[in-house]
Amino acid sequence: MTVPLSVLDLAPTSTGRTRKQALDDSLRLAQTVEQSGYNRYWMAEHHGSATFMSSATALLLGRAAEHTSTIRVGSGGVMLPNHAPLMVAEYYGTLATIYGDRVDLGLGRAPGTDPVTAAELRRGGSDLNDFAADVLKLTNFFSGSDSVGVDEGVSGAQASVLGLSVSPSRFHRTVRAIPGEGTNVPLWMLGSSTGGAHVAAELGLPFSFASHFAPQQMSAALQTYRSRFKADADTAQVEKPTVMAGVNIMVAETEREAQYQATTHKKMQGQLRFGATGPLQEPTWDMVETWSNPGIDPTHIIGTPDTVAQKINEFVEAFSLDEVIVSCYAFDPAVREKALTDLAKEWNN
């Protein structure tokens, strides 16, 4: 087909399986999709969920990177208001220092959780101006531009380790992300509305739109991003507007089997709609419906490998996409692995 495919994983757990097994399933998935030729393996930050085990995203990505060798690994994304930009730069800069140019950093504004848990995360400002300022800090930390100047002293940590008493006037006058500075970790802006598109355009960053769960504003967001894109921004990382979009898929040997396996995802959506979380549930035949929608619904692309690949290709052409990131939910982890493997085989033919 025409563009690269990537995979988004939230480390879901299934009824009857432990949380440790869910994390091991995700590691195996990273290895499987690397072997299948996918471009990226991304994980998304979620907190307080009994469904998704991907809260400590940087740790899980480090594990995935350690057990793969070629596929890009990254966040899809880090919810930046949950974290100090310095900490994000240190975590992902450490990953880039160890694993080289395989690490991506996708950034979002949402909390990735419920309001009560969000308060415990001590979130910072999430309006567009605060968010853009934090993204700018990140780019400076990664480039090392915040550490330009004369280094006139030692850090408080160094003084403590050495047992020294140091005058405040002798402390560093700059803040540095070490390791991290000089790694220039590639940034992606995530969004499900025109807000994220505007920030991505102003900063000259590639944009990943969350069409897999919020397709309603996709046309408006992409129009905003492409029309306002500033290739000459100081923070620009791509020369022209670059768009990735998400789709949810289920692939099986027959249309009916794919519909059956997809009922697990439909049950999960029903739970989340009412604010409930829990492990993925077994698929059931009583929920199977004939997929007769003639349009393209990125929240549910279900069928045989050839029909799913064709629908994704139509989606790419309709929105002039540069990349597609795929999510797949299945009660049995082996079903998820096979679905993604079979899709890759069809896509790469």
UniProtKB/TrEMBL annotation:
<comment type="similarity">
    <text>To bacterial alkanal monooxygenase alpha and beta chains.</text>
</comment>
<dbReference type="InterPro" id="IPR011251">
    <property type="entry name" value="Luciferase-like_dom"/>
</dbReference>
<feature type="domain" description="Luciferase-like">
    <location>
        <begin position="7"/>
        <end position="318"/>
    </location>
</feature>
<dbReference type="InterPro" id="IPR050766">
    <property type="entry name" value="Bact_Lucif_Oxidored"/>
</dbReference>
<dbReference type="InterPro" id="IPR036661">
    <property type="entry name" value="Luciferase-like_sf"/>
</dbReference>
<dbReference type="GO" id="GO:0005829">
    <property type="term" value="C:cytosol"/>
</dbReference>
<protein>
    <submittedName>
        <fullName>LLM class flavin-dependent oxidoreductase</fullName>
    </submittedName>
</protein>
<dbReference type="GO" id="GO:0016705">
    <property type="term" value="F:oxidoreductase activity, acting on paired donors, with incorporation or reduction of molecular oxygen"/>
</dbReference>
<dbReference type="Pfam" id="PF00296">
    <property type="entry name" value="Bac_luciferase"/>
</dbReference>
<dbReference type="InterPro" id="IPR019949">
    <property type="entry name" value="CmoO-like"/>
</dbReference>
